[in-house]
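Person: Show me a sequence?

Helper:
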Amino acid sequence: MKSVLFAISLALTTQAMAADESYPYTLESVPYRDIDQRLVIGSDATGTPAPLQGLWWMDGNPQADEVMSFANAAFKDIEFDGQVVGHEATLVVYDEGIWAWHDSDEGERQARKAYKWRLVYHLVFNADYTHGKIEPILDPPEGFRFGIRIPRNPLANFTMDQVNQDEYVRDTRLLGKSNQYRFRRIVDGQGNRLPTYDSFVKTVESDGVPNALLPLCTLENTSQVLPTVCATR
């Protein structure tokens, strides 16, 4: 287990990595203040459950990413004795329209690494989406013998717990290190900016990261269509 945890830590840490010449996306720099015009908003049209619709600000996230969408996660019910007890889905982190990375060297490294390791999150929520568990899954690049799946365990635990309808607490524990930040909904499922949108813009601009890097699939014109061919080939 320790060797597996070391591998995921290596994949997700911020150490420099040479650019992957096979990276099938371009990274476009856009102002965070316009991010709702560029990411795919989770909605009824994308099949996103109402509690997870819209766009979410990762407020306090120590990594070089800031906003995400659940729009490419196709949820299905988990049933036990004929009752729905939860929901699960897979979220492709690296694909177009889903993740906004900082427009910085570190943001670019993380975006490229997410693709290089084919990072996806297996999401499992309870019946009312008030508690969720996140299981990272990596498909290592050439040179690694096995895929990596990180089940919940004492050394690796990724959860989110609802505070109110527009906010979750995100807890991460990995290799003895813990951090906590907030998922704050900044755009609702109808595309309306919420009051937190202004707070989000002020925060990223005061932090000196006013622009985001957005992956755009170069293999076809796939605007608003998820997953793109870059993620499914």
